[in-house]
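I keep forgetting this: the sequence line spells out the residues, with the fold written below as integer tokens. I include a record here:
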Amino acid sequence: MKGPLFYSKILLFGEYGIIKDSKGLSIPYNFFKGALKTDENPSETAKKSNASLREFVGYLEMVHKNSPDLVSFDFDALKADVTGGMYFDSSIPQGYGVGSSGALVAAIYDKYAQNKITVLENLTREKLLTLKEIFGKMESFFHGKSSGLDPLNSYLSIPILINSKDNIESTSIPTQNPEGKGAVFLLDSGSTGETAPMVQIFMEKMKQEGFRNMLKDQFIKHTDACVEDFVSGNVKSLFGNLKQLSHVVLDNFKPMIPVKFHDLWKNGIETNDYYLKLCGSGGGGYILGFAEDLDKAKKALKDYNLEVVYNF
């Protein structure tokens, strides 16, 4: 048995801000993927994944009991498959901010949800919000609190524009320019990040009035401007806003940036060779980079492995 593939995602803009109603833009990233599988001779990794799925089934039964009108699953089939050794076979790195649990949630919903909303129907705002709510509840098993956006992106495999908590829509982004000099890239920090403790730090900071004001007046303002620039293809303005955003993150989100990247981050802002920002909750995993001239950025970051995600 091997189920359909579900892809990783990248939240280009909106990390932390979307908790407080900033705009956000999430795109599928087909480099990493996962699928539900069973094997005759499962590996240790497969057994571990299967054990985690067993726990997840119990959690989903609780979700259904608490919200019977929101979502129901074919539990008989799901339990039979898990007992038969089903696991999630995935190349998506965990703790890297590219949506490993999101792809698993999407795969389980796709295969076992009853009366599911499908990609083929007319996706109204109501349907998108319902899916987001279902996925948020499902993914909370892995994260403590989930917005549901990662699984939504993985399930639909289309860019999602977040206007606010209650207003999301599928969107199109400008077609990539393979000849272009500019690029969005991933930088491997070399360590994994844990989402829950990072969100905890953020929530603690939110108790300070100064931090809340900075979030509203600077972080969200620049995030919203970046989203609008990116979607409309206004590259010149985008890089101006990215520089500001990178600065605000360096000044106010230090705990989320691995220490050895503080100078690298600052260097990008000072030289304009590249700008860095958080990819997901930070603390490790990938860091997102933007460069108007990728060759310049590669020279400046020659000690690091860059994965290009999108070309301008």
Notes: The chain has a mean pLDDT of 92. The first strand starts at residue 6 and ends at 13.
